[in-house]
Design brief:
coiled coil, 18 helices, 3-stranded antiparallel beta sheet, Transposase_28, elongated, 8 strands, 4 domains, Transposase (putative) gypsy type domain-containing protein, 3-stranded mixed beta sheet
């Protein structure tokens, strides 16, 4: 990951085009036969057939990179491609991915990254494997457990110029950890084969596409922030991968720590009901809804009222009170969320907090003139019914499982857990609002474009109507001018003369026949009428 490549801490997925200004921007995993450019479609990957021809070459490759004997290398069939569904029990592996630092069995950190983004090992380009392996080695030598959140804090998932492949790009805002990625790799897309595992693979084996939630900017806890700071402090400047990814370093990093199983992928129902929402926030929301439903159901079963209140006890509280009475334990009903969380009585403060009630003698001894304390305004004009309703609502928000966890936890742990939950919720809300604003801006831009097109269409229609009207007038004027010119031309006079001569000759024939029928003794040659009628 060259530190010179520009990057950002944005939560969106980078789409790297083929015409990047720097060769490092496309991950350096370029081929001469794949330089056509553009964001190409999945069928392009289907054009890359495997370059392995013999089983002996696969076995030698597995021995070179220490693949255990229980994993069986399978030569791809003629129709199999890297993006094809693999045979049962297998996963597609690139030879240059093994050279870049991928090792089998997969380390738990690798499985966690693949499961989080929902991609198969063959979708990560060799330089992507170099980044993951380099991060694992750096964490090992810094004494820091590899964390997905810390990894995403330093690196962003980027789409390769050929659709379906991905790699990782460093964030300038987080600080550079590694450098020295190769700028060009030849023929890596053809060097793939299938590897069969005796147990199910702990990562996706079919090609997938990362979701927007998986590429959102992570929110680090205090411990994760300290880990990120320690990584930068221990290693100082960016570490060169050419010296970092040695066989001894990889073996040491892979040997430490047991592989962690990847987190279970979200169910289709959760993904469809919580599109764009963080899964942990959505699960918490479901637990709160279930707690509210249980509270509403329990309020219908009443037995006795709480002391100092007309509100009846729910079925759950009644059972807890009866059990406490049978065992001879003092009955305690928390009156505030803090009492509820820490199990403190109404007269004693929780651990780590001072009591707010003081005796009259202590007030006289320490403060001769007691300062008036601020009394909050009571709702409903001082009626306690509003406070009781608010208390019941606050109690219904906390699920029973979280109530037990709060009771056993320290106040600082409760505050820290609540703060992390608030950060996650704020992250989800920020992402949703940003996405909504982006859609709103796009919609406004489309409406502006539509208005501009409508105005252009109206203008074009007006221009067309004017052009039609002008052309009709010009056509009429041209016809009138042509007719007038024709009537004054010699051709018109000649046609009139020919027409008159034809009529004259036809009339002479009729006249001669009529005269001879009446006067047969006349000479036809003498029967002539001049064309001008015989006038002077």
């Amino acid at each position: 990951m060259p530190s010179s490549a520009s990057s950002s801490s944005s939560s969106s997925l980078y789409i790297i085009g083929a015409r990047a200004p720097d060769a490092a921007l496309d991950g350096g995993d370029t081929d001469d036969d794949a330089s056509g450019g553009g964001a190409l479609s999945r069928p392009v990957a289907e054009r890359f057939a495997s370059s392995f021809l013999t089983q002996e070459s696969l076995d030698a490759l597995c021995r070179k990179y220490g693949v255990p004997d229980q994993f069986k290398a399978i030569l791809p069939a003629g129709h199999h491609r890297a993006c094809s569904p693999p045979p049962p029990g297998t996963v597609c592996v690139y030879a240059q991915a093994l050279e870049a630092g991928m090792r089998v069995p997969l380390h738990g950190f690798f499985c966690e990254v693949l499961a989080h983004f929902g991609v198969a090992p063959s979708q990560i380009a060799p330089n992507g494997w170099r980044v993951m392996a380099g991060f694992l080695v750096l964490c090992h030598f810094a004494g820091v457990p590899p964390s997905l959140a810390v990894f995403r804090h330093f690196f962003s998932l980027c789409a390769h110029k050929l659709k379906g492949w991905y790699w990782f790009r460093g964030k300038d805002s987080a600080g550079a950890l590694i450098k020295g990625l190769p700028l060009s790799l030849k023929g890596w897309k053809e060097g793939f084969f299938f590897l069969r595992s005796p147990t199910p693979w702990p990562c996706p084996v079919k090609w997938g596409e990362p979701s927007k939630v998986s590429t959102a900017e992570p929110v680090l806890t205090r411990e994760e922030q300290s880990r990120a700071t320690k990584l930068l402090r221990v290693h100082g400047a960016a570490v060169d991968l050419k010296t970092c990814l040695s066989e001894s370093n990889l073996a040491a990093a892979m040997a430490t720590g047991s592989p962690r199983p990847p987190p279970p992928p979200p169910s289709p129902r959760t993904a469809s009901n919580a599109k764009g929402m963080d899964p942990s926030v959505y699960d918490m929301m479901k637990s709160l809804r279930a707690a509210k439903a249980a509270q509403a159901l329990g309020e219908k079963v009443t037995a006795k009222s709480e002391p100092g209140s007309d509100t009846p006890l729910s079925g759950t509280k009644r059972k807890l009170a009866d059990d406490a009475t049978k065992q001879g334990l003092p009955r305690h009903e928390p009156s505030t969320p803090l009492d509820h969380a820490h199990g403190s009585s109404s007269g004693a403060a929780p651990p780590g907090f001072s009591t707010q009630r003081a005796s009259k003698s202590s007030v006289r001894d320490h403060d001769p003139v007691p300062k008036p304390r601020h009394t909050p305004d009571l709702p409903d004009g001082g009626d306690t019914a509003g406070w009781e309703a608010a208390r019941r609502m606050l109690q219904s928000i906390v699920a029973p499982s979280r109530e037990r966890a709060f009771s056993a936890a320290k106040p600082s742990d409760v505050i820290e857990s609540s703060f992390v939950t608030m950060l996650e919720a704020a992250n989800c809300v920020s992402f949703s609002l940003g996405y909504a604003l982006e859609l709103e801006e796009k919609l406004a831009a489309r409406e502006r474009e539509a208005d501009a097109l409508r105005r252009e269409l109206t203008k074009a229609k007006a221009e067309l109507a004017g052009a039609r009207k002008a052309s009709a007038g010009e056509a009429r004027s041209a016809r009138a001018a042509a007719l007038e010119e024709y009537l004054g031309s010699t051709e018109h006079e000649l046609r009139l003369a020919n027409h008159a001569l034809t009529g004259y000759e036809r009339g002479m024939e009729h006249m001669k026949r009529a005269a001879l029928r009446r006067y047969p003794h006349l000479d036809p040659e003498q029967l002539v009428v001049p064309p001008d009628g015989g006038g002077p």
